[in-house]
Specification:
- By secondary structure, the protein is of the alpha/beta class.
- The strands form four sheets. Strands 1-10-7-4-2-3 form a six-stranded parallel sheet, sandwiched between helices.
- It is elongated and about 85 Å long.
Length: 696
């Protein structure tokens, strides 16, 4: 029986936490320039990484001057062995631990237990997880997947007596039990949020008093820290401190901030763990991931993490950033199952404290996996065999179009999919190919130069992309009519794939071939208006990066999303149209991932809609959460795609709007099909369609 990935109860907890987190984070960052803060933090982390060897040497020297013993560990095995050696030399049989993700990375607890040393967690979440025999599912809140009833049951089983599921009572019990562990321990172990080179001190940031107790009560303090944590001075540590708690937990500062230089009592040992981080730092692509400060903001806003949690979406480290660390620290093979969970929606990047391009790095990791561990058969056929060859791709679409009368209904959706594909349409109806393509309709109805117009504002070319060309030509025609009425000479671009689907799946060579065909077909001048954000991203960003030519950069400079073109050139004309839409008209707006998180064009679309229709957009809950289409993601992960769509439809329905607008034909496929399957009386429409209807 197939395993259900989504636990409804866990999903509810994680989504409610995400809403609360976003509200608290927004409040505590009010008055701050988040972009300036994270740009500063990213720069200081990059500078420190460039000087890593030098700063580590300085840190070692200064820490030893304070009486600390500093050791280097090449990998997790060496780190664990060093800690065991310290325990044996110091006759330590009980170790009290503060939270340390690095110790999870090395498997320290199990290693010590196998050698007769009891390692007891004293962070509340870590302690609960340890008692449950599980592992953390979040880097900041390790036990976020457990309810208070779960915790009460765990405590009852551990203590051998009934424990109420009252939170204050649970905290009192935990405090008493963990203090016993701390006072009985012969050593304490912590991680470090930063290693300060100039002083040889560590920065430790916690919200519970256990951190300070673990570093001061036991006679021996062991620090296990990874080498990328080193910064030059306290000034950089304070820059980190200014942003970390705000972005991690929505606090202006954590409850406890400790700078520790040297042993508090008998001895302090500092173990500096590499574990492939030096190799990662030397990689020109993946080194950016080492900026990570473990704030977990990326998890807190990740749509997939909110559905699956950290049990499913992790190896040791969780989510997209965890996938990157898994590939380097625990091996490419361990990351392969995690890469497919990333939507590449880029939402994480908008919240990352250190400006790490997580989604972009996941794509680069997919490229490496394809190269070193082999390609998925159907994707190799689709991308290398079809999408990289325009003639074959067009032939495939023509064949599908020829069978439209057999496979399609009058309403434009498939009649019935083969049994092996039922999983992909059970949650939303899928569109059949259109009766004719956009470029054919354009040629027939408007002609190559916008027949019947007297252009006065210059020429523009519409690039529709595959979905508009073959499934939604009416969107292309709507945009063409709008631009024609506004006085432009409109042309239809080539009926070619931009190359984004293979690029997103890590098929760089196939993507480059597809983009190259577009590049050759679109030489010239004048604006190219795009109707698909993923096409825009490919033509203006990824394609030029892959191609690297001046010609590609010149093409990129001509690309402009439809809504942005209207805002920049014609908003006054649009606003001067009809005073308002029909009485009672209500429109909500779905932020397509690339439209918002890459192109930052979501405000443009709202301005166009509100100007043309004379009504304000009714905002849905979290309009920038992915609808679940995400190209091949919905094929790889139909259950997750269905879960994301269900949440999106619920958010749309809650607004009471009769229209949900968007700028992405992929999102339109997902949301329109979902509305039909669910029987929602909501019209899903592209911004260009609405503008065509309400512009005189």
């Amino acid at each position: 029986m197939k395993k259900n990935l989504i636990d409804p109860a866990l999903k509810s907890v994680l989504q409610e936490f995400s809403r609360s987190y976003l509200a608290k984070r927004g409040a505590v960052l009010a008055g701050y320039d988040f972009e300036e803060l994270r740009t500063r933090l990213a720069a200081l982390k990059d500078a420190a990484l460039a000087r890593n060897a030098e700063l580590l040497a300085t840190f070692e020297e200064r820490a030893r001057a304070h009486g600390s013993v500093v050791l280097r560990a090449a990998d997790g095995d060496e780190a664990n062995a060093a800690i065991l050696r310290i325990c044996r030399e110091r006759k330590i049989s009980r170790l009290a631990k503060a939270k340390s993700m690095v110790s999870e990375e090395t498997g320290l607890n199990a290693y010590l237990a196998a050698h007769g040393v009891a390692a007891r967690e004293t962070d509340l979440g870590e302690w609960i997880v340890q008692l449950a025999g599980e592992r953390p599912t979040h880097m900041v809140m390790p036990a976020i997947h457990l309810t208070r009833r779960d915790v009460a049951a765990i405590f009852s089983r551990t203590l051998g007596r009934p424990v109420p599921d009252d939170i204050p009572a649970l905290v009192r019990i935990a405090r008493g039990e963990m203090r016993k562990e701390i006072f009985a321990a012969e050593a304490g172990l912590t991680g470090a949020n930063a290693l300060i080179a100039e002083s040889g001190a560590i920065l430790l940031v916690t919200n519970e008093g256990n951190g300070r107790m673990v570093t001061t009560v036991p006679p021996v303090h062991i620090v296990l820290a990874s080498i990328e944590k080193v910064v030059p001075s306290a000034a950089e540590a304070l820059d980190l401190l200014r942003l970390l708690p705000r972005n991690a937990t929505g606090q202006s500062i954590t409850s406890y901030v400790s700078f520790i230089a040297g042993p508090h009592r008998t001895a302090q040992y500092i173990i500096l763990l590499d574990n492939h981080r030096s190799e990662m730092a030397a990689d020109p692509v993946f080194r950016e991931a080492l900026r990570c400060v473990k704030c977990s903001a990326c998890l807190n806003v990740c749509p997939v993490y909110q559905l699956l949690g950290g049990k499913e979406y992790s190896h040791i480290y969780m989510g997209g950033i965890g996938t990157l660390f898994t590939a380097w620290i625990h091996g490419l093979d361990k990351s392969k199952a995690l890469v497919k969970y990333c939507l590449r929606c880029h939402r994480c990047e908008a919240y990352c404290a250190a400006k790490i391009p997580i989604a972009g790095l996941i794509t680069a990791l997919a490229e490496r996996l394809n190269s070193e561990t082999g390609k998925v058969a159907w994707k190799r056929l689709a991308f290398d065999g079809v999408m990289s060859r325009p003639v074959i791709l067009q032939s495939a679409f023509k064949a599908a179009q020829a069978g439209r009368k057999v496979i399609g209904r009058k309403d434009g959706f498939f009649r019935r999919l083969p049994a092996w594909m039922k999983e992909y349409d059970r949650f939303r109806a899928l569109p059949a190919p259109a009766a004719t393509t956009f470029t054919r309709r354009f040629k027939k109805e408007l002609g190559r130069a916008g027949a019947g117009t007297r252009p006065s504002k210059g020429a523009v070319t519409i690039f529709g992309g595959c979905l508009i060309e073959h499934f939604y030509p009416e969107i292309g025609m709507a945009a063409a009519r709008v631009l024609t009425r506004l006085g432009y000479e409109v042309k239809a671009g080539p009926a070619l794939c931009c190359g984004f689907p293979p690029s997103n799946a890590g098929y760089r060579k196939a993507s480059g071939k597809a983009f190259g065909a577009v590049l050759r077909a679109m030489e010239g001048e004048g604006a190219i208006v795009t109707l698909c954000p993923t096409c825009t991203t490919m033509l203006a960003r990824r394609g030029p990066e892959i191609d690297g030519s001046e010609k590609a950069r010149a093409l990129a400079a001509r690309i402009v999303p439809f809504s942005r073109f209207i805002v920049e050139k014609e908003l006054a004309a649009v606003g001067g149209g009809r005073a308002a839409g029909p009485a009672g008209l209500s429109v909500t707006y779905h932020d397509s991932c690339h439209h918002k998180n890459v192109l930052a064009a979501e405000k443009d679309s709202r301005r166009v809609i509100e100007s043309a229709l004379g009504t304000s957009v009714v905002e849905m809950d979290q309009p920038d959460t992915c609808c679940g289409f995400a190209g091949t993601f919905c094929v790889d992960n139909p259950e997750i795609s269905a879960g994301l769509l269900a949440d999106k439809l619920a958010a749309i329905e809650k607004t009471g709007a009769g229209i949900v607008a968007m700028d992405c034909p992929g999102c339109l496929l997902q949301i329109r099909g979902g509305c039909r399957s669910k029987g929602l009386a909501v019209r899903a429409a592209h911004t260009a369609e609405l503008l065509d209807e309400y512009l005189p």
